[in-house]
């Protein structure tokens, strides 16, 4: 993700935040990753909304479907969505973000 942000000259002006602001991991395997559950995303909705309010002029881009759904659910303006770079999606993420920047 950061490699792409630097390549597009966005790294210094980008703030990242997760729809679920904690680390979802497999039971008893803290170094693992997993998709947050709907309940976990719902639990993070208020925090996401409050965090976004700190940047009232920000262009919000969802990284992944979970983020897009969370942002839309709380009514934030969504400038676009790109594929999450995990699980082989790095190229689609980079291409999608480049397309959003160009528009």
From TrEMBL:
Residues annotated as domain Uracil-DNA glycosylase-like: 1-87
TM annotation in the entry: none
CDD domains: UDG_like
Taxonomy, superkingdom: Bacteria
Protein name, as recorded: Uracil-DNA glycosylase-like domain-containing protein
